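Input.
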Amino acid sequence: MNSVKRRGAARLASAILAAGLAVGGTLALAGPAAADEAPQNQGGVTATLGRITAGGGAMVQDRRKTGDIMAGLFEMKVDGGGTLQTYCIDILTNTVDGAKYKETGWDESSLHNNANAGKIRWILQHSYPQINDLAALAKAAGTDKLDVNAAAAGTQVAIWRYSDNVKVDAKNPAAEKLADYLTKSAESVEEPKASLTLTPPAVSGKSGQRIGPVTVHTNAGSVTVAPSGDTTAKKVQVVDKAGKPVTSTVNGGEIFFDVPAGTPDGSASFKATAATKVPVGRAFIGDHTKTQTMILAGSSESTVSATATANWATKGAIPALTAKKSCEKGGVEITADNKGDQPFTFELEGKKHTVKPGGSETTLVKVGEDQAYKITITGPNGFSKTFSGILDCKTAETGTTGGSGTTGGTGKPSASPSAPAGGSGTSTGSTGSTTGGDLANTGSSSATPTIAGVAIALIVAGGGAVFLLRRKKTTEQ
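Output.
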């Protein structure tokens, strides 16, 4: 939404491969020499930024920027099906038209050190679109009337006061009264849990045994899984504790990779998928793109997914690698587990690291704010894993006043985000939602303009820190 201030980053690519689930069927065996590009986050929703559906003008007066901005409610289209509604939590950063976003935890966003993050979630729970009885909302705010544009603008303004610690006021008197009411009434509530994650996202072990477990965490009633990639391998299966092949599981379910003895050294992965509402208050960050950070205000039933991998061998070092952004520490934490019978040795920034058999080691790779990174780790039998993303953990200190999708701040709702990924033009206009509430009930607004031709272009920020972790040659295993 409004993007007057760049939230400087909280997206150290949590390259956590988003773990995997049970599938009765076969696992795709990866060729030993194939490099594996890990996802940026642990799992959940991936969505494309669309248009503003409701909003209005606001005025920001701050040491960093003074001027008109747009405050409003964005719509996102979920990959695989579903619709999200989001507000902005980074007022000085412009949106990128058609940008891809991924669901993430507060610890990987600008909310990681924000003492008022819980109050922001309270505002989301007690205002539009979660509260779509605008007459009741107007009465609570002490104003005569609220329409959807004033409700969206007032809600966004209240959120900015806590997300960016900025002085900002809505131009519409009713919207301003709503913003004041929400700001004064907000209480701290706990962070919402992820829609779907798998822990750990990567496991390893010797062939001839069950490798795992991978634990499912979700608010969905049921999760299904399917092999990722080629399905020609017939021997490796995903099973439960009893060794029974499974094709679905539930929250708390434990899944294992059953690798028969004699299976050639290699790896396999599964993709877990579910349909559920994403919890209000989940953060959304750009996927390999510097763009305005969003926070979820409403969700239809949407497709969520996560992936888990297993790596096995008959002897030698058998690593399992995961990565997670740490906004608190300013970098990416790489965790290497070794389930083999020989040490796993690799180099990171000129320093050798050795993980003993049965051991685990976590190493922090420091990354500059707003910097792209790519971390590749190689190991025995052609093992290779790459983690990449952008570290974006702070709200912006400087930037173009763009509001909820305008490059100059026109005081009107913008029909689309600013800063197109594939061109220089922007589209502006006034739009207004005629319905509100949880998207699970309303779907996208009937007045929401059709999002046509939105480029899903990903801007992979260049010039970022590139780290190569290469395994030193060891004795014959």
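The first strand starts at residue 36 and ends at 37.
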